[in-house]
Amino acid sequence: MRLLILGGIGEALKLAHTLASIHTVIYSIAGKGRIPNLPCQVRIGGFGGVDGLTTFLRENQVQLLIDCTHPYAAQISHNALQAARQADIPLWAYRRPAWQPMVGDDWRFAADWSEIQFALREFQRPFFTLGLEPLRHVTDIPSHQHWLVRCLAAESPISSHMTLLCATGPFTLEQESILLRKHRIDVLVAKNSGGGAVEAKLTAARKIAIPVIMFDRPRLPVADREFTESGSLTNALFFIG
Ligand code: NAP
Fold first, then answer.
1. Are residues 49 and 67 in the same domain?
2. Ligand 1 test: best mutation among 3, 15, 69, most atoms within 8 Å of CB?
3. How remote is the CA of residue 122 from the centroid of ligand 1, in Å?
4. Ligand 1 pocket at CB < 6 A
5. pLDDT, tens digit, for every residue of 163-196?
6. Percentage of the chain modeled with pLDDT above 90
7. Are 52 and 30 a contacting pair, CB within 8 Å?
């Protein structure tokens, strides 16, 4: 079977590795992170919206589209549903479960940037793990705050109120604990990405008793089949023709 996997997370890489010997797999990434070494075709970069993805599906005679993208990569998930409909093929999706607060956690929830800013007003040294978004608001940093911003890669905007840290996970509990202490962090701002690769920061925040401002997940479209365990998705694909 000819499959297009929309990837970008660890589970997608494992899926492509496992299925490459059984199916004809094309693995697609946005290209902002590491370029993986896989035993299948890897394509890098956007398709050019829904129409571009539809054309790609048709030209490559893809029979099944698999959305295995990051839970916050909502645009590509919405494009995937529309393109699958236009190309008249099924869409399957892996929907990674969200993290749940545990005893000792102090989570506060924010739906957008203005709610994050409002929740932050009582803090001095927030640590942002939201990707590039905080860098767009450097001119809004209140004078009583110093921001630590971690993302994959970025040019540092000049501000004496911000420290930029370019790094790629996974991170250990020890690394996260040292980082929080070194920068005297008093609040963590995070996406509810789920999974194990970047979860240690939540454990570190719990251990030193600092609150977490959790940025709500975006709404994702409903696929023809959805899986919340990557192993179940792999098994289902193992046994189709
Ligand atoms: P997005 O808003 O869903 O996608 C923006 C555009 O990037 C898409 O419209 C598409 O371009 C292209 N794109 C995204 N994923 C692709 C894939 N697998 N293959 C080919 N093209 C792809 O996602 P985003 O802007 O990349 O990220 C949104 C949020 O998710 C950020 O907060 C980011 O930190 C987080 N995140 C994303 C990824 C990822 O791999 N995308 C991984 C980790 C975290 P066209 O419309 O031109 O096709």
1. yes
2. 69
3. 32
4. 6-8, 28-30, 32, 46-49, 52-53, 69-70, 72-76, 79, 131
5. 999 999 999 999 999 999 999 999 999 999 999 9
6. 93
7. no
pLDDT for position 216: 98
Q: 119 and 183: one domain?
A: yes
Domain check: are 154 and 91 in the same one? no
Residue of 75, 113, 152, 166 best suited for mutating to test ligand 1, as the one with most atoms within 8 Å of CB: 75
| Phi, psi angle pair for 104, to nearest 5° | 100, -10
Domain ranges, residue 123: 107-215
Q: What is the dihedral of CA 127, 132, 137, 138, to 10 degrees?
A: 70
Within 10 angstroms of residue 105's Cβ, the number of other Cβ atoms is: 16
Q: For the segment 104-123, what is each residue's pLDDT rounded down to a tens digit?
A: 999 999 999 999 999 999 99
Residue 147 and residue 228 share a domain: no
List the residue whose alpha carbon is closest to atom 34 of ligand 1.
131
Pairing of strands 107-110, 41-44: unpaired
Task: Report the CATH number that the domain containing residue 167 is assigned in CATH.
Answer: 3.40.50.150
Residues 208 and 223 in one domain: no
Residue 102 resides in a domain: no
From the CA of 75, how far away is ligand 1's center (Å)?
7
Residue 141 three-state SS: coil
Residue 162 dihedral angles phi and psi, to the nearest 5°:
-145, 140
* 201 and 159 housed in the same domain: yes
pLDDT at 239: 83
- Please tell me the distance between residue 165's alpha carbon and the centre of ligand 1 in angstroms: 21
Counted domains in the chain:
2
Asked if residue 172 belongs to a domain, the reply is yes
